[in-house]
């Protein structure tokens, strides 16, 4: 795979804070500037980074893993390793825990989030990722399926082009990296507002986060994130919702959700997801 | 055109109040029950109704006009007439004003809202429609393009599948029947959330109203409406918006809109659009 010279340069956006967790809406730029990937690379330690790639969401893990291997290698990482785990038992094996142990950054690729969760969920590898995140020894990024899995509740599938309804979205347990959030990705690109609304009707304790392609929710503090990239991040906050007809109505019936707070955020916007408010920066 | 027996029956939903204005999201049922059209027919006087059809949005006004002519005739209207106006001057002619004069209901069909506005905007016919609405002597329904034209500001075109941006939506003056509202239609069906958000960023004094297909905003009082039909009505209320980057950024740049209030409404929900609050009915 060819990587343009521009991806080898420092990212356009200066890093003032490490991003311990980066949730990417899929289709992040891999050719022109590679801003989001370069930010991840810098957050993980730049030339000193040891990066692990988890390609388990993909049905072509070798191909997808190699693509990111080339990218991070050409960016100048000290070490890049692919955690090509093919069955859940493998994710409990010492050899992979040892690989993870030296990682300063882990990148989770796209594919199918159900596949990813079935391979990684409930394993020692996931426990160790969470442990390293809590102790500040790891930067974690996930794109597309690797973003969808971040919440305690995960959108496993669904449709667009219909009114919000219970049947519009399929929900499953996620990996719980950011338990408060219910993440959707390729958001406006694949017209997923109705399915995220439907998901939030079922889980009004969560905060809906819809991330566009080549756009990133970059956690930059305790319970805060900023938006990086080319698109928008849509926040659906049902904290003040006064009424929903979920689940009283038929699964295919249109949903009501009264009094949602919604934010459309773009690059540079910051949001406090613990206290559910936009942080005024301009 | 065939009309099923079921469209000849009384509507399923009992009419307790006349709806002076009905804003329909397009593709209203014309075969099975015809709930929305039957509600319009009943509001306009049922067997005593004299209905005028304005097919001017369509490039095939004779075909579209005839389709609704058949429907309302078979429902049992006393009189149905098609106001097949082909140039703006015609809409000032006495013959059409006389037709309108006897109408208890006017139905505006789908097509191209720009075409509709260029034929009807600023004419004596439009003035008389507004006059009759104000004096309670007319019921007005518009579907698709006939819905889009209701506001003072109108969405004339746009895209989906992209992040909200200024370039995502084309805005023009509408006919100002419901000046407070900025209406989009075929809403979730054609994935128009991003374009309505983009329109609201440009006109934060308006209330965004996205109406799904076979769904209707039925004005049922002074500044209030209820939702009828199979889908949802999305209300985007920027009344408490704290920040937007519109129009400072490039036309193609992603937009920020902080602190929108959003409601997803379904059948039976009522909304006070003057005071911008859901009316608690359950």
Condensed summary:
Chain A is α/β, with parallel strands linked by helices and 282 residues long. Helices cover 23% and strands 28% of the residues of chain A. Chain A contains 7 helices and 16 strands.
Give the helix tally of chain A: 7
- Provide the residue-averaged pLDDT of chain A: 93
- Kindly report the greatest chain-chain contact and the residue count on each side: A-B, 41 and 41 residues
Tell me about the largest β-sheet of chain A.
Answer: 9 strands, mixed
Task: Specify the structural class of chain A.
Answer: alpha/beta
Low-confidence stretches of chain A: 8-17
Helix percentage of chain A: 10-25%
* N-C termini distance of chain A: 41 Å
Number of strands of chain A: 16
Query: Strand percentage of chain A, roughly?
Result: 25-35%
* Major β-sheet strand ordering of chain A: 3-2-4-5-1-10-11-15-16
Order of helices and strands of chain A: EHEHEHEHHEHEEEHEEEEEEEE
User: Quaternary arrangement of the chains shown?
Assistant: homodimer
Radius of gyration based on Cα positions of chain A: 18 Å
Shape of chain A: globular
């Amino acid at each position: 795979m060819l990587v343009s010279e521009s991806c080898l340069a420092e990212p356009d956006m200066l890093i003032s804070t490490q991003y311990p967790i980066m949730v990417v809406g899929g289709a992040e730029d891999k050719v022109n500037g590679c801003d989001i990937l370069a930010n991840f690379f810098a957050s993980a330690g730049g030339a000193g980074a040891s990066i692990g790639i988890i390609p388990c969401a993909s049905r072509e893990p070798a191909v997808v893993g190699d693509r990111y291997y080339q990218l991070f290698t050409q960016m100048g990482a000290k070490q890049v390793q692919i955690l090509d785990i093919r069955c859940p038992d493998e994710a409990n094996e010492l050899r992979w825990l040892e690989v993870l142990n030296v990682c300063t950054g882990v990148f989770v690729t796209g594919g199918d989030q159900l596949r990813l969760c079935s391979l990684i969920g409930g394993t020692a590898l996931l426990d160790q990722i969470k442990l390293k995140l809590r102790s500040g020894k790891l930067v974690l990024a996930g794109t597309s399926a690797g973003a969808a899995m971040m919440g305690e509740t995960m959108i496993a599938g669904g449709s667009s082009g219909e009114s919000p309804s219970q049947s519009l979205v399929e929900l499953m347990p996620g990996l719980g990296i950011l338990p408060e959030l219910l993440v959707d990705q390729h958001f406006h690109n694949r017209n997923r507002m109705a399915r995220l609304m439907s998901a939030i009707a079922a889980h009004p304790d969560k905060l809906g986060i819809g991330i566009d392609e080549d756009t990133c929710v970059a956690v930059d503090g305790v319970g805060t994130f900023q938006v990086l990239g080319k698109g928008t991040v849509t926040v659906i906050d049902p904290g003040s919702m006064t009424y929903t007809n979920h689940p009283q109505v038929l699964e295919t019936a249109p949903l009501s959700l009264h009094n949602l707070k919604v934010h459309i955020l773009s690059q540079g916007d910051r949001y406090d997801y613990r206290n559910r408010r936009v942080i005024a920066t301009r």
